UniProtKB/TrEMBL annotation:
It comes from the Bacteria. TPR repeats lie at residues 62-95, 96-129, 130-163, 164-197. This is Tfp pilus assembly protein PilF. Keywords: Repeat, Signal, TPR repeat. PANTHER family: TETRATRICOPEPTIDE REPEAT PROTEIN 6, UDP-N-ACETYLGLUCOSAMINE--PEPTIDE N-ACETYLGLUCOSAMINYLTRANSFERASE SPINDLY-RELATED. Residues 1-26 form the signal peptide.
């Protein structure tokens, strides 16, 4: 699973700005608009009221409109969210945070070209910004453009080699590009830094499955031990066990994945074929 950015990354900085002298006093809705604990509907409504109450600088208007968009996007109303982000741009075109958020909603609406333009604008305003690079890289990777995605993840790692999410995503991109050795090394580094990262064990196992199936099984075992409630580990181990001729073990894993909520019709067919 690709490690993506979160909408609410903008709110921590916004809260600090709202707390600046005179901010909340001049506009009582401002602090509520920048509350990271607010439910999406409340966030959108509080920010609407903050904008309507007035008395905001151009930057604060842009931040309020952006947070309104965040709330609307979290409600699945990406069209309305984009309209809010557009208003933020009109208020302060130099506010980099709005472009990353609008990019996410544009992608959700299938407007990939617009999303790419937004990420590019964010990076013009804030060169090397981690959120924009990670967001663009994740979007590109989802769309199969692994080489360009890898460039973004490597740009993040150039600034912070300890960024585990960037290294994990780089591993996914490398695997998609068929660079198994480099992908395995990336996941191994994540595991070395965070031995409890079940996803890293799972993805390293997938990379190893064709080259070293026994090592892959050990990785899948560890992924399942760390996150037994997730079907993905059981599915991966079942497929490898079946390939290795362990039909009994594969059947047990297929069944467990089904019990955990995996509903792929091919899964039921495998269970029936193996006598389940």
């Amino acid at each position: 699973m690709i490690r993506d950015i979160a909408f609410r990354l903008v709110l921590a900085g916004a809260a600090a700005l709202a707390a600046a002298p005179g901010g909340a006093r001049a506009n009582p809705w401002l602090e509520r608009c920048f509350d990271p604990e607010a439910a999406p509907a409340a966030l959108a409504e509080n920010c609407r009221r903050a904008v309507e109450a007035g008395g905001l600088s151009a930057r604060r208007q842009a931040m309020a409109w952006t947070n309104m968009g965040v709330g609307l996007a979290e409600l699945g109303r990406h069209g309305d969210a984009i309209a809010a982000f557009d208003a933020a741009e009109r208020a302060d075109p130099g506010y980099a945070g709005l472009y990353v958020k609008r990019a996410i909603s544009n992608e959700a609406r299938g407007r990939v070209r617009d999303a790419l333009a937004d990420f590019a604008r964010a990076l013009e305003l804030a060169p090397g910004d981690r959120t924009a690079l990670m967001g663009r890289g994740a979007m590109l990777l989802r769309r199969g453009v692994a080489d360009r995605a890898l460039e973004d993840f490597r740009a993040v790692l150039a600034r912070d080699p300890a960024d585990a999410d960037a290294r994990f995503n780089a591993g996914l991109a490398l695997a998609a590009l068929g660079k198994a050795d480099e992908a395995e090394a990336a996941f191994s580094r994540v595991i070395a830094d965070a031995p409890g990262d079940a996803d890293a064990w799972l993805e390293r196992g997938r990379v190893r499955a064709l080259r070293d199936p026994r090592a892959a099984l050990a990785d899948f075992d560890r992924a399942i031990a760390l996150a037994p409630e997730r079907p993905a580990g059981w599915l991966a181990r079942a497929a490898l066990r079946e390939r290795l001729g362990d039909d009994e073990g594969a059947l047990a894993d297929w069944r467990r994945a089904f019990e955990l909520g995996a509903q792929d019709p091919a899964l039921l067919e495998r269970i029936r074929r193996l006598g389940g």
